[in-house]
Design a protein that fits this description.
With 132 residues, the chain is mostly beta strands. It contains no helices and 14 strands. The strands form 3 sheets. The protein has a 6-stranded antiparallel β-sheet, with no helix packed on it.
Length: 132
């Protein structure tokens, strides 16, 4: 079982995340169920965010939704549901404007769903792969 990750609010919209022997600062903005997080140079949209407990700490579920950065055609889908993946592994290859765009895993995990197939046209921000 993976270590539990814990977020501690250190300022409005700023959280210190501890777990797996690592510590990171995550910036969060938005309200209700529409929240955006900035971590390690990446931007994530968070749906159904967990509330922060009275002590200012909450376990984080780091489910990821890898999304299309632009309208494109899916060229390859090396990802498969149930597969273990590592950070940086290519999960989908897109083609847009005669360029190939690899969509890579942002962390180690397991593919829980694949929402695209080769030849499919996808839109910007469309979910391609889910990882937990």
């Amino acid at each position: 079982m993976a270590d539990e990750l814990v977020a501690t609010a250190v300022a409005p919209g700023v959280f210190l995340v501890d777990g797996s022997g690592q510590r990171a600062v995550v910036y969060v903005t938005g309200d209700g169920n529409d929240r955006w997080a900035f971590w390690n140079g990446q931007v994530f949209r968070i749906a159904d965010s967990q509330p922060v407990h009275a002590a200012g700490r909450a376990p984080l579920d780091l489910a990821q939704e890898l999304r299309s950065p632009m309208p494109a055609t899916v060229v390859q889908v090396p990802a498969a549901t149930g597969a273990r993946v590592t950070k940086g592994q290519v999960l989908v290859v897109l083609e847009a404007m005669k360029m190939e765009i690899p969509v890579r895993s942002l962390a180690d995990g397991t593919v829980t769903a694949v929402h695209c197939h080769p030849g499919e046209l996808v839109q910007a921000d469309q979910i391609l792969v889910e990882i937990r």
